[in-house]
Every structure is written in structure tokens, then in C-alpha cells.
Write a structure and sequence with these properties.
With about 475 residues, the chain is α/β, with parallel strands linked by helices. It contains 20 helices and 15 strands. α3 runs antiparallel to α4. It is an enzyme of class 4 (lyase). It holds the Pfam family Thr_synth_N.
Length: about 475
């Protein structure tokens, strides 16, 4: 399997080359030259496999430069009940008689779905760097969950340093504590005085400085990294097998989304042949994706227009992974994709796809909807009272939007993206009590914290990386 850029660079690269690279040299994102497809016989063979076995089967279709025995060992090391709490790894539960099912993706070490991919990424990085005898400086941006998942996956890994940017004061107290309380020498937290998109822009700026990127061996763990998105494809198959009995059944998924990475993995699974009828994108008040799927216009917002909400991990107005889907939508035309995401965004901060392209969206199964703070409170309260199931704020956005798109005879699976403990303030507002916490996390907010506050300045971040690479 070889990979090309969404912006027209047709140089084909291997999986391990792009694993450590992040963005392509032309500023695009990597995608396989073609999606491998699976037939009914393959689905039948995969049904009933343990999660690690299923992950190996899917990853093997995309990774041919890691020996099969090594890949199998890496996957088996990653997806264990000890790390994810259950044999199923991503158990699916029914939400009473609502017609909805919830796929639990948040039982890993940081209580968020990002662990599903990040734990694998940490093991892949350590393996490949050891094989090359190299080091890697990971630069990432987080709105709350990516950062802690990356840091817990990379802490203590040989040959890896992490520089994680986050919006200063805009994460929940629990999210901040998870990241900033880590004292590992290879973990560096930078709190940017701005919003997530300011932090994400810095990561892209640094990644586009090819000389700096190569000199300091900069890699990424954000979902612009194909390996992370690929790992997420697995749980769509796992959810499908749990929600159905036969491979001629179809399901739909609703995905709370801000950066489009999670739902983009569903798009890849659907392109591979998984019987997905609809992929429903659920946004919060930062509804750039909902606006696109309703109108065909993708309009990024500046910091002043990016709302601070009670589902903060979705407070994003520049959806980095969205470029991958648009590349497929426009017939994998790299020049067209570059004109939209490079030229049009730089010039006008927005683009509108053609009428023909807009009409083609339906063929990819996408639908969308929006949820507000009032909706979240009502959904959390109603789900708790009616079903005895306490959900977090982001999953509540998904449940609210999913209920608007349920179809008779088609299971609707909502991806649970975090546990309620991470957003205690809003949970208390909704149900009047404190959410439970897994053992060992009581009092995490009181732990000593280590982080650096900075202006949203790419040069300052580069200087910080240079200084700490010399340590």
C-alpha cells in the first residue's frame, strides 16, 4: 500500500514514511492511493474475532512495511482488557427503547476515545524509531482529549518527546489536570493564549517549514496523522459486528465531531465496504461542519467567532481532516483540493463546492445536525432519568442529533467520545450530582502542574522546541 497527498503531490510513500511525517511536503494530508475493499466473505470471516485480531486484519490491508508478526505483536500489546477495561474493548450497549445504541470508546487510560488510536500510535512510534535508531519530536494541538491521550501513550517512550499545545483556560479542570500534572521529562505542555484553532495553526505552520521540520524531526499525533485515523477505522467494524447478526444488514453511526477525524474514519470504513447507510455528523455551537453539509459552504471562523462551550473538545472551527473527505468528493483531484483548502481559504476564509459536488455528498451517506448547551443538559438529564445511563457532554450532542435521524430497521450507533467524569461541572448542572470517577483519579485537580503559557506565536514555539531539544 502506498500513500499520496490530497494536494496533488503524486510521490508515493510507504506507511512507515508517513507515520513519522504528519503533513505531506505540499501541505496536504496523506491518503492511500486506493481504499482496499472487503467483501461479504471477508466480513463473515472477521465477525467474531477478538478486537486485537480484527485490528490486525484491517491494519494489514494498509501496512506492508512492518513484518506481519511484528504488527500482530504491536496490536496485541495495545488492545488488552488491562488497558481498556473489557474483553470487547469497545462494548456496544442499547439505550433502552430509544432505537439508539452507544459504542463505548472511552474506557482507556484518559477516559476519551482518543486512547483507541493513541495507544497504538505510541507503540508504532517506539517500534519504528527503534528500528531506525532515530528520535522524534511530536508537536500536537488539543482542545482537551488528544493531548492527554497522546501524553499518556508517549510518556516514557524511548526516542520520543512531546510538545502539546492547548488553548489556555478553555479545557475542563479535569482535562487540564490530566495533562499538566504529568511530570515526565519527555512531556512538555504549552498553553496558548487563544483558541484551539490558534494552536492548530501553529502546528501546521511548523509542519510546513520543511527545513525546521527535518532538522528537529517533527512529527504529529493529531488526526492529520494517517496512522491515527487508520486505527479508528477498526472500531466501526467492531461496532457493526456487535449491532448486527448478519452481514447483509446496514447500520448508521452518529459521531460528535469538530475536527472531522473520528467521522472521517467512518468514511474510510464505508469506502472499504462496511454496510453503513448514514454517517451523521453532530456538532455543537461551533457548527462549521453542519453548515457545510446543509449548504455546501465551508466557512472557517476566527477566534472571536469560536464559541467556548460545555463540549469543549468540539470547540473547533477549522476541521483539519475535512480535506480528506473533500479530496474524495471532488474525484481525488489534487489541484481542485489545493484550490479549495489552500487558495480559497487563504483568500476568503471559505469555499463553496459546485452544485454537482454538493449533490454527490448524499452518495457518501453524510447527514448532520447541531446541539446547544440547553440541548446537552436536557439530553444528559433525560438519558439519565429514562435509561439510567449517564453520558458526557459530547456524547450528549451525538445522542440528541442521532435521535433526529433514526430510521426504522436501521441500528443507529452513537460513538461515545468521553466519560462524564471529565466534565463534572456540566454533569452537576444537568443531573444535580457528581459523576463517578474510575479508581485512582480522585483529587487529580490538586496535583502539581507543569506547563508554559505562550502567546499564539509560531516563532516562540519553535524557540521552545529548540531549547528543549538541547536538554
Amino acid at each position: 500500500m502506498r500513500y499520496i497527498s490530497t494536494r496533488g503531490d503524486q510521490t508515493e510513500r510507504s506507511f512507515c514514511e508517513i507515520l513519522l511525517e504528519g503533513l505531506a511536503p505540499d501541505g496536504g494530508l496523506y491518503l492511500p492511493v486506493a481504499y482496499p475493499t472487503v467483501d461479504a466473505a471477508t466480513l463473515a470471516r472477521w465477525r467474531g474475532l477478538a478486537y486485537a485480531e480484527l485490528a490486525f486484519e484491517i491494519l494489514s490491508l494498509y501496512i506492508d512495511d512492518i513484518p506481519a508478526a511484528d504488527l500482530k505483536a504491536l496490536v496485541a500489546k495495545t488492545y488488552t482488557p488491562a488497558v481498556f477495561g473489557t474483553e470487547a474493548i469497545v462494548p456496544v450497549r442499547r439505550l433502552g427503547d430509544s432505537g439508539l445504541l452507544i459504542e463505548a470508546l472511552s474506557n482507556g487510560p484518559t477516559l476519551a476515545f482518543k486512547d483507541m488510536a493513541m495507544q497504538l500510535l505510541g507503540n508504532l512510534f517506539e517500534y519504528e524509531l527503534g528500528r531506525r535508531g532515530e528520535q522524534l519530536n511530536i508537536l500536537g494541538a488539543t482542545s482537551g482529549d488528544t493531548g492527554s491521550a497522546a501524553e499518556y501513550a508517549m510518556r516514557g517512550k524511548h526516542g520520543v518527546r512531546v510538545f502539546m499545545l492547548s488553548p489556555h483556560g478553555r479545557m475542563s479542570a479535569f482535562q487540564q489536570a490530566q495533562m499538566f500534572s504529568l511530570q515526565d521529562a519527555n512531556i512538555h505542555n504549552i498553553a496558548v493564549e487563544g483558541v484551539f484553532d490558534d494552536a492548530q495553526d501553529i502546528v501546521k505552520d511548523v509542519s510546513n517549514d520543511l527545513a525546521f521540520k527535518r532538522q528537529y524531526k517533527i512529527g504529529t499525533v493529531n488526526s492529520i496523522n494517517w496512522a491515527r485515523l487508520l486505527a479508528q477505522v477498526v472500531y466501526y467494524f467492531a461496532g457493526y459486528f456487535q449491532a448486527t447478526k448478519h452481514n447483509d444488514e446496514v447500520v448508521s453511526f452518529t459521531v460528535p465531531s469538530g475536527n472531522f477525524g473520528n467521522v472521517c474514519a467512518g468514511h474510510v470504513a464505508r469506502m472499504m465496504g462496511l454496510p453503513i447507510k448514514h454517517l451523521v455528523v453532530a456538532t455543537n455551537e461551533n457548527d462549521v461542519l453542519d453548515e457545510f453539509f446543509r449548504t455546501g459552504t465551508y466557512r472557517v471562523r476566527g477566534s472571536a467567532e469560536t464559541h467556548e462551550t460545555s463540549s469543549p473538545s468540539m470547540d473547533i472551527s477549522k476541521a483539519s481532516n475535512f480535506e480528506r473527505f473533500v479530496f474524495d468528493l471532488v474525484g481525488r483531484d489534487g489541484a481542485r483540493t489545493k484550490a479549495l483548502f489552500g487558495d480559497a481559504i487563504a483568500r476568503e476564509g471559505a469555499f463553496t463546492v459546485s452544485p454537482a459536488e454538493f449533490s454527490a455528498i448524499a452518495g457518501y451517506g453524510f447527514q448532520s445536525g447541531k446541539s446547544t448547551h440547553a440541548d446537552r443538559l436536557a439530553t444528559i438529564r433525560r438519558t439519565d432519568e429514562r435509561f439510567g445511563d449517564l453520558i458526557d457532554t459530547h456524547t450528549a450532542d451525538g445522542v440528541k442529533v442521532a435521535a433526529e435521524h433514526v430510521e426504522p430497521g436501521v441500528p443507529m450507533i452513537v460513538l461515545e467520545t468521553a466519560l462524564p467524569a471529565k466534565f463534572a461541572e456540566t454533569i452537576r448542572e444537568a443531573v444535580g450530582r457528581e459523576p463517578g470517577r474510575p479508581a485512582g483519579l480522585d483529587g487529580i485537580e490538586a496535583l502539581p502542574k507543569r506547563f508554559t503559557v505562550m502567546k499564539p506565536d509560531t516563532a516562540a514555539v519553535k524557540a521552545f522546541i529548540q531549547a528543549h531539544c538541547a536538554d
